Write a sequence for this structure.
């Protein structure tokens, strides 16, 4: 399940920042590609990397997702249960307003036997997105050929408008 997708492969598909907003500011050591939804990516990594779960994609599929799974040569995904949640936070498949996403898993029998635990992992993941119980639906796959579908009660707003700080004060602020 391991593959390599270089930054050059997916950076050319990035949504462009409108010229009127200026360049997207990026913290030292990161690329513009990593800047989009960077805070959400960091939260997912902090919570789900220790669980051996890849919680987002910046490209296309597991093994070519531009996430922490590929930055860490020692990372190994779970061999049973959910191992990859395909929500595109950047890259060529990025959609700023998705209404659903999919989770991939290994071993359908294990998934069914441990559905409450696996469902809990996905509910926790939805919580990181700011969704409360009742604002998402997690669909149990009927067979091993189906992925787990997560429907959001309303389309997400993944846009993170980023404005370059010019150092000037806001002249429109009445205070």
């Amino acid at each position: 399940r391991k593959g390599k997708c270089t930054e050059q492969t997916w950076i050319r598909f990035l949504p462009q920042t409108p010229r009127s907003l200026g360049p997207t500011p990026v913290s030292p050591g990161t690329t513009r590609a990593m800047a989009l939804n960077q805070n959400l990516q960091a939260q997912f990594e902090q919570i789900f990397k220790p669980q051996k779960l890849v919680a987002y994609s910046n490209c296309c599929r597991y093994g070519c997702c531009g996430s922490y799974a590929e930055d860490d040569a020692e990372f190994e995904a779970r061999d049973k249960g959910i191992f990859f949640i395909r929500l595109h936070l950047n890259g060529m498949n990025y959609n700023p307003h998705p209404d659903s996403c999919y989770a991939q898993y290994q071993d359908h029998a294990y998934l069914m036997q441990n559905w409450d635990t696996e469902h809990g992992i996905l509910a926790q993941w939805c919580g990181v997105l700011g969704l409360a119980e009742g604002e998402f639906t997690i669909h149990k796959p009927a067979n091993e050929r189906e992925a787990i579908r997560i429907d959001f009660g309303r389309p997400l707003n993944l846009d993170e408008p980023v404005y370059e700080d010019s150092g000037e004060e806001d002249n429109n602020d009445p205070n």
